[in-house]
Amino acid sequence: MSKIVVMGAGSWGTALALLLAENGNEVVLWEFFEERAKEMQKTRRNNYYLGGIDLPDNITITNKIENILDGAEYLLFSIPSQNLRNAIQLVSSQLTEDIIIINTGKGIEVSTKLRLSEVIKEEILGKYHKNIVALSGPTHAEEVVKKLPTTIVAAGEEEKAQKVQELFSNNYFRVYYSTDITGVELGGALKNCIAIAAGIVDGLGYGDNTKAAVITRGLAEISRFSKNFNAFEKTFSGLAGMGDLIVTCTSQHSRNRYVGEELGKGKKIDDILNGMNMVAEGVPTIKAVHEISKDKNIDMPIIESLYRIIYENENILKIAKVLMERDLKEEFY
Ligand SMILES: NC(=O)C1=CN([C@@H]2O[C@H](COP(=O)(O)OP(=O)(O)OC[C@H]3O[C@@H](n4cnc5c(N)ncnc54)[C@H](OP(=O)(O)O)[C@@H]3O)[C@@H](O)[C@H]2O)C=CC1
Ligand SMILES: O=C(CO)COP(=O)(O)O
Hints:
Belongs to the NAD-dependent glycerol-3-phosphate dehydrogenase family. This protein has 14 helices and 10 strands.
């Protein structure tokens, strides 16, 4: 039995806390808002993000940060990418070299263009950075709490990634490991952007051919982008690449796909985001990826189109036409 501190009691943090508790661990679930933490302590449920599920006794809910890491073997972050840095700052002084840091968020920090393990590394001043593991794959919280068979990949230094693999695995949650933290993080971050494009396809009422085109050409863009950062090519045919891309582009649970669907139906991005209580990471990540692709001269027509729709308020039908009428080229270039 290990003590695990989970920071972020949104849908994913709560689902993972439940899984770790079921695996027999002592879990401390830290919630950002004091009032919401109090409500969860009282009801023993997380009604705001994952209603209807009782939290077992081996999950302690808290909003307090003092001494939170005492006796902890693992610190897990499940925080929206643009807020992750603040959350690390709250606990970084308590870290010791024997604590493994697991990040489960998916995105790129817009202000710095850093991957999330790089944000963590910066905040812990490079100390213990070999302890950082990214956990990513096709894993909607709503299905994990129902114990539907799910697979995921833990990426980091081999020994640490394997420890995380052991920690989470059970008969409905199968964890693979990888040493390609860069590829696993980029796969998770960029698929959220492509899922917005897939949602637009749904919202416009286009067909399965179009959805398949977005997924396949989206994967080509993700691989092309990631090559610039020395990610392993094979990672993108794996769980954190194609696997997560498929689930996010097709799932009824996906918040990113939903944003795209509403855009496709003609709604304004601010109205869509204001109407959601959960994070859609693809929106800020499109901005970060667009800027990086311009800096590094990486051809990313889907990302470019999404940027123009979301950040420049361009007409979706006009953009779709431009995408289809580009110069013809070889499939793999
Ligand atoms: N949901 C899913 O199925 C999956 C999600 N992920 C990833 O996990 C990450 C978290 O997503 P998810 O749980 O779904 O998000 P939710 O929108 O469900 O919850 C977000 C959580 O982050 C907290 N939060 C918001 N702002 C801050 C802040 N400034 N500091 C600390 N905490 C903050 C929220 O607290 P509060 O409610 O108090 O505002 C809430 O607990 C994302 O990167 C997502 O891509 C990965 C795999 C699956
Ligand atoms: O990452 C996820 C599934 O693997 C969750 O995707 P959404 O944030 O689009 O719901």
